[in-house]
Write a structure and sequence with these properties.
The chain is of the alpha/beta class. The protein has a single domain, classed as Rossmann fold (3-Layer(aba) Sandwich). The chain has helices at 13-24, 31-40, 44-54, 61-72, 90-99, 112-120, 160-174, 177-184, 196-206, 208-212; strands at 2-6, 27-30, 81-84, 104-109, 122-124, 131-133, 187-191. The strands form two sheets. It has a five-stranded parallel beta sheet. A two-stranded antiparallel ribbon has the order 5-6. A hairpin with a 6-residue loop joins strand 5 (122-124) and strand 6. Helix 6 (112-120) packs across helix 7. The chain is globular, with a radius of gyration of 17 Å.
Length: 213
């Protein structure tokens, strides 16, 4: 079982992937988080992609393709996988379509104005990469990660000007991916302007069959 979840920055892809995973037993996988982990661990891949990610540009497909293949075929994904952040351009899509199938694809629809607002108020734990928001998803202790108790940070690519530039990249490269899912008959467009619970309820209404099985 493969579920693709995509949408502009701030639409809640990672949060919704985690909630789906909790309710279905599937694996939530974020390509962005996987790459940031490589950077944090200073692996060979991390050293190769760090400067690319800082600029908000796409990592070479041979790297992301290899990472995805290993995760999808791992024991952790035995019950299925929710993929966030891949495929993000035509080259990745060509590899994906040749090697994997899609059972469901969810586009989380959000306006540019709301996307910038959400992302510019996001804060991230530098240790566990858990996301918070100083407006809508606050930590128990201001400025501290609930799990690690370390100071939260604002990523450089979460600042308004950079978010706007990343949205332009998304609209150019990623949004056209929806045509592929439309042709497969697996695309579901979800309004993500509501609360986390409201958005998740809409997604789970579509996935009722998965829960029954």
């Amino acid at each position: 079982m493969i579920v693709i979840i995509f949408g502009p920055q701030g639409s809640g892809k990672g949060t919704q992937a985690e909630l789906i995973a909790q309710k279905t037993g599937m694996l939530a996988f974020s390509m962005g988080d996987a790459l940031r982990h490589e950077v944090h661990q200073k692996t060979a891949i991390g050293m190769q992609v760090e400067s690319i990610m800082v600029k908000g540009e796409l990592v070479p497909p041979q790297i992301t393709n290899d990472i995805l293949s290993k995760v999808v075929n791992s024991p952790a994904a035995e019950k299925g996988i929710i993929i966030d952040g891949y495929p993000r351009n035509q080259e990745q899509l060509e590899f994906y379509s040749k090697n994997f199938h899609t059972d469901y694809a969810f586009e989380l629809d959000l306006s540019e104005e709301e996307s910038i607002k959400r992302i510019s108020t996001r804060r991230v734990c530098p240790k566990c990469s858990h996301n918070y928001n100083i407006v809508s998803l606050t930590p128990k202790v201001e400025g501290k990660c609930d799990m690690c108790q370390v100071d939260l940070e604002q990523r450089e690519d979460d600042k308004p000007a950079e978010v706007k530039r990343r949205l332009e990249i998304y609209n150019k490269n990623t949004l056209p991916m929806k045509e592929y899912y439309e042709k497969l008959g697996v695309l579901h467009i979800i309004d993500s302007s509501g609360s986390i619970e409201e958005v998740n309820n809409k997604i789970m209404d579509v996935l009722k069959g998965v829960l029954k099985n």
